[in-house]
Amino acid sequence: MHAHQVFFIPFGLSLHGLFLVVQNARHGQVHGLGQAFRIIFIIIIIIFIIMRYPQIFSNTKARPI
């Protein structure tokens, strides 16, 4: 654990803190966090797709956005 990483942990939502967490996850140091980020990322993509293309997930008449 490097000093700058410890410093940025409380600011996990800041870009640099987020970058450090993702970087750590890639190296498998915080494997649980990496999996959580991947799951959250996939959920965000799915929600975006559903919002953007509702007709894919709906058998009823979908109104174009």
Main β-sheet, in a few words? none
Residue-averaged pLDDT? 66
Number of strands: 0
Structural class: mainly alpha
Following the backbone from N to C, one meets helices and strands in this order, namely HHHH
Helix content: 55-70%
Number of helices: 4
Envelope shape: elongated
Please report which band the strand proportion falls in: under 5%, 5-15%, 15-25%, 25-35%, 35-45% or over 45%. Answer: under 5%
> N- to C-terminal separation?
47 Å
- Domain tally: 1
Low-confidence parts, pLDDT < 50 over ≥5 residues?
none
Radius of gyration: 17 Å
Transmembrane segments: 6-24, 36-54
Keywords: Membrane, Transmembrane, Transmembrane helix
Provide a brief overview of the structure.
Keywords: Membrane, Transmembrane, Transmembrane helix. The protein has 65 residues and is an all-alpha fold.
Task: Write out key terms for the chains shown.
single chain; 65 residues; 68% helix; elongated; transmembrane helix
What is the element layout, followed by pairings?
Layout: H1 3-8, H2 15-26, H3 31-52, H4 54-57
Overview of this protein structure:
Keywords: Membrane, Transmembrane, Transmembrane helix. The chain crosses the membrane at residues 6-24, 36-54. The chain has helices at 3-8, 15-26, 31-52, 54-57. With 65 residues, the chain is mostly helical. The mean pLDDT is 66. The N and C termini lie far apart (47 Å). It is elongated and about 40 Å long. The longest helix has 22 residues, at 31-52.
